[in-house]
What we know:
Blueprint: E1 2-10, E2 15-23, E3 37-42, H1 51-55, H2 58-64, E4 67-71, E5 81-82, E6 87-88, H3 89-104, E7 114-119, H4 121-132, E8 139-143, H5 149-153, H6 167-174, H7 187-192, E9 201-207, H8 213-225, E10 230-235, H9 241-254
Parallel strand pairs: 3-4, 3-7, 7-8, 8-9, 9-10
Antiparallel strand pairs: 1-2, 2-4, 5-6
Amino acid sequence: MALVQVDFISEKLKRTVTINAIIPVDKNTGQTKEKLKTLYLLHGIFGNYTDWVCGTRIQRWAQDHDLAVIMPSGENKFYVDNELSHEYFSQFIGEELVQITRAMFPLSHLREDTFIAGLSMGGYGALMNGLKYHQTFGYIGALSAALLLDDFIQAKDGEDVPYMMKRSYLTSVFGDLTKLKGSDKDYKALIEKMDIQDVPAIYMACGTEDSLLPQNRDYRDFLKAHHIPVTYEEGPGGHEWDFWDCYIKHVLEWLPINEKNEGLSSGHIEMD
């Protein structure tokens, strides 16, 4: 299993960025090597490119299933484009990151082999960018997605308002909040503007003790009302790593990836 940290200059973000990449090319299975199916995996607010490897068993499961996993940093910016700051995180995720990682690693270029998923802020980013770049991503996974556009639009400043919900902060991320509805940052508007056959397959999950449960249920119902197939699960847990560690495995079980094939590794040694 190759766990690689990569630094490269991003044209979309105008600076050097760092990603983690799980690239299972070193397994001794005796099978012919094929281009790797790929999951672009987004972290939540306050996190970075190390979160998924530190907080879950994604590295082990990716190795088992010959799945490449690319983990960038979203820098609390919700993976959206911001014209005022010249930080184009959406274009970075949906275009540049895909192009660069495909040039670096033996990744499949097929839509049906290219997936995007995330948790919380990253769940929003996965849904929004997965829909916006539906020509690239065939599958979207959203865990405890921060589907809070209505709250963002009504946000106010104040000492008692959490940092990530302050109107001034949200304006610095999304721009004019009064223009969010109907924009390419609006996960409902993106669905309404698409042909049903173009919508990627969608998986959602949220903990029954998570404060974001009502918003996730609302989006599930919205998708069903628009005749969009969605695989939706709930389970015990809050907005926490124990839940995400469990349900990222559910995401992998849902994705069309290879059957478990451990090969020879330090965690799987055959003596005969």
